[in-house]
Specification:
Keywords: ATP-binding, DNA replication, Nucleotide-binding. It is built from 11 helices and 2 strands; from the N terminus they run E-H-E-H-H-H-H-H-H-H-H-H-H. By secondary structure, the protein is mostly helical. The chain has a two-stranded parallel ribbon with strand order 1-2. Helix 10 runs antiparallel to helix 11. It is flat, with a radius of gyration of 20 Å. The mean pLDDT is about 90.
């Protein structure tokens, strides 16, 4: 059995080669392909697979998993701290474990250390990124966006969700244009476009909004 994580990041040529390997070894080997965007997997491979879609883990189950890890690794924790991790990572177990590991280096798993490890609230950070973009400070906004997605593991789905909340909360005069931009890049990501490129393009387009005034 061979497990390929992030299979949706493979090029079409690589996937075509993989398809041939899957065909040639079908009697002796089984493949498990893991990815975020099924649209990035070529149809000949999809047709040879049983497809399973998984939802995010609910808060109760995620906290239970984190508690189990803490007990096994002898990490001191507060229940409220684990719930805070669950709230920040929104059901993404991999991001939750990464944040737990970062927080454990600071000592006990509590709200204070979690805020340090996570760079404080994702929501407030995204609100800051939105403000930087609207002020035409694209480079600073891009750097902070990359930090959230690549270092703290915030998914592009949650990035867009929190940005939508920030837009509606602050009632910007450009709210119509902002929602249209957000919807456009959300659709592109859902249909399989590279998330990093699309989020960067999103910030670039927002940065241009007030240039025309």
């Amino acid at each position: 059995m061979i497990i390929l994580d992030e299979a949706d990041e493979m090029t079409n040529d690589a996937q075509t080669a993989l398809r041939r390997i899957m065909e040639e070894t079908s009697k002796s080997c089984r493949f498990i392909l893991i990815g975020n965007y099924i649209s990035n997997i070529i149809e000949p491979i999809q047709s040879r697979c049983a497809i399973f879609n998984f939802t995010r883990i609910n808060e109760k189950e995620l906290v239970k998993q984190l508690e189990s890890i803490c007990i096994k690794e002898n990490i001191k924790f507060e229940e409220q701290g684990l719930e805070e991790i669950s709230n920040i990572t929104n059901g993404d177990l991999r991001s939750a474990i990464n944040l737990l590991q970062s927080c454990s280096s600071l000592g006990e798993i509590n709200t204070k250390n979690i805020q340090k490890a996570s760079g404080h609230s994702f929501k407030s950070k995204i609100e800051e990124i939105l403000e930087l973009s609207l002020d035409n400070d694209f480079n600073s906004a891009r750097i902070k966006m990359s930090e959230l997605t690549n270092i703290y593991g915030l998914s592009e789905k949650d990035f867009l969700k929190y940005m939508n909340e920030a837009i509606n909360k602050n009632k910007y005069k450009e709210i119509k244009e902002l929602i249209e931009i957000l919807a456009k890049y959300d659709y592109r990501i859902i249909t399989g476009s590279n998330p990093d490129i699309q989020l960067t393009a999103l910030l670039a387009e927002i940065s241009n909004l007030r240039k025309t005034e």
